[in-house]
Amino acid sequence: MDQFYINLLFVGASFALYFGIAIWARAGSTKEFYVAGGGVHPVANGMATAADWMSAASFISMAGLLAAGGYANSSFLMGWTGGYVLLAMLLAPYLRKFGKFTVPDFIAERFYSKTARLVAVACLIVASVTYVIGQMAGAGIAFSRFLEVDKDTGLVIASVVVFFYAVLGGMKGITYTQVAQYVVLIIAYTIPAIFISMELTGNPIPAFGLFGEHSASGMPLLAKLDQIVVDLGFAAYTADVPNKLNMVLFTLTLMIGTAGLPHVIIRFFTVPKVADARWSAGWALIFIALLYLTAPAVASMARLNLINTVYPDGVKAESIKYDDRPDWMKTWEETKLIKFEDKNGDGRIQFYNDKADMSDRGWNGNELTYNRDILVLANPEIAQLPGWVIGLIAAGGLAAALSTAAGLLLAISSAISHDLIKNSINPDISEKGELMAARASMTVAIIIATYLGMNPPGFAAQVVALAFGIAAASMFPVLMMGIFSKRINNKGAVAGMLAGLIVTLVYIFMYKGWFFIPGTANLPDNPDNWIMGISPLSFGAIGAIINFTVAYVVSSATEEPPQEIQDLVESVRYPKGAGAAVDH
Fold first, then answer.
1. In Å, what is the CA distance from 162 to each residue of 108, 186, 197, 400?
2. Chain centroid to CA 321: how far?
């Protein structure tokens, strides 16, 4: 069977499954739309949380980042994983005990302030919208290759699929669809990794194969990879990071930014009681670990396979002729995500770090460029695996992108319909009216996300940094202080959120050139110009410190929170009775 039809079969079958679940799990009330009725089993919720967590960034981009940067990019792995642990240990159970529908709900009641709610809604929407652009772009990339359509058409198809099960089912439909999506994506990620690990190391467990021997050379796999990338002028794959402070801050930004992103937090509102929230967190960590322990092996093996494709007889020998390039390269060239430019006119593909002097070999610059996001998706083709494996990873990539997109869109929808309309604009709205508003706001959010995916704004290239930076600098501190400090009042919380958010945005924007700041516009984005060598991508951690500091200073200079609020904080942290969540 032709590969296109195999891909269509796998993707079509997965979509049919999602549609069927959406029809079965149609939300009939606001509680079902926002929190799936509050009755999701911890194992199912753990699986859905893992799917929500492991976005296109985890499935598609993370291995590409590790493949390109090696140890230097391990911050992404440590930051995202550590962020989940922070969320599971320090936030999720307490927020579930509080018993609300949304994160702004918690902030509004804990800080007894409509202003705090509105600021939280603004932070949530900006962070979630910027993050969802990346998910839609990931879906577009997967569609453009596997269904042989252009990226914009792929975005529209993805939007229609998400619209159907998210708008119809709300959190109830999304939850059970994400359970199915987790099964699809973990199988899709693991099976190709097992094949490739067996092929390169003889070990069927990729995480062990990473530290095993390279079958063809007898050398340790990582030592072999270090050798060939150094010969091509790149830094060693396992090379140390020169700026330790920046790496620590970047890892911390990802950790606390991840813990502050609302689309995963709201998953813990869907279980019956606090103990179930803790069990959900544990199960989710197990399900996440299955992919995150495999990703470093996928990354290193993908880079090794890519180089071996260009230099089949070793990097000291001649590279392949462009006319003899493998079929996978021809296929991906059609997506414009991999490109060749014959700079020295010899008809061969010269792939190396063109900052290195290779003039003695007659090379005039690197001739092969590729989008690193294609590595996971192209890995089965590079390794010449069976067609059904390629179809499987197509379905997995789409499942990863769509599952997180749905969670983000629900967070946006809930903030608009529940926090803005129900609690700020029209408190007397009926439940039916609120449900209609939720579906309408979800529809608008999908349309906006699709438009931004097709016409990305100037910050789209740094969407992940901006989303995590906003969440780190604004949402995480106020959640932590709301749970663990009785002294923080409404004035301190609002001042802290605004200070952290504004300082972080200004720092990022003045280096990215996204708006004009007198005297700082167009500052070169390099370590020599960064303040104390801190990258704009790492500044979210500094923004969080500013948030904490401002909140404590302002709260200390103003009145204490009312006694009933202090009692509320005490009851959330030290619950009495059997531990069942309070329903409001």
1. 30, 20, 34, 12
2. 37
Residue 475's closest CA among 119, 71, 111, 33?
119
Q: What percent of the chain has pLDDT over 90?
A: 32
Strands (E) located in 358-457 = 368-370
CA pair distance 20, 37, nearest whole angstrom = 19
Whether pLDDT at 582 is above 50: no
CATH number of the structural domain spanning residue 215: 1.20.1730.10
Percent of the chain with pLDDT over 70: 94
- Residue count of the chain: 584
Query: Could you give the count of Cα atoms lying within 13 Å of 397 in the half-sphere of its Cβ?
Result: 34
Strands (E), 356-493: 368-370
pLDDT digits 0-9 by tens, 511-531: 765 555 555 455 667 777 788
Contact 3, 159 (CB under 8 A): no
Helices 295-310 and 74-86 pack at an angle, to 10 degrees, of: 160
Domain annotation covers residue 467: yes
Residue of 443, 438, 405, 407 whose CA lies nearest to 420: 438
* pTM across the whole model: 0.84
Distances (CA, A) of 265 to 68, 415, 545: 31, 13, 21
457 or 135, higher pLDDT? 135
pLDDT of residue 457: 54
Q: Convert 35-51 into a string of H (helix), E (strand) and C (coil).
A: HHHHCCCHHHHHHHHHH
**What type of residue is 63?**
A
Asked, for residue 58, whether it belongs to a domain, the answer is: yes
Q: Is residue 97 part of a domain?
A: yes
Closest CA to 440 of 167, 217, 106, 99: 167
Residue 346 has, within 13 A of its CA and on its CB side, a CA count of 14
C-beta of residue 374 within 8 angstroms of C-beta of residue 170: no
d(C-alpha 120, C-alpha 482), whole Å: 13
CA-nearest of 492, 481, 487 to 561 is 487
If one counts the domains in the chain, the total is 1
Phi-psi label, residue 456: left if phi above 0, alpha if psi -120 to 50, beta otherwise = beta
Helix axes 490-512, 476-484, angle to 10 degrees: 160
What gap in Å lies between CA 375 and CA 64, rounded to an integer? 6
Q: 218, 130, 45: which is closest to 412 by C-alpha?
A: 130
Q: Would you state the structure tokens that stand for residue 14, as one six-digit string?
A: 């997965």
Domain containing 160: what range? 3-301+386-573
Provide φ and ψ at 321, rounded to 5°. -75, 145
> Is residue 343 domain-resident?
no
Torsional sign, CA 465, 469, 470, 472: positive
348 phi and psi angles, rounded to 5 deg? -110, 155
Distance CA 151, CA 7 (A): 16
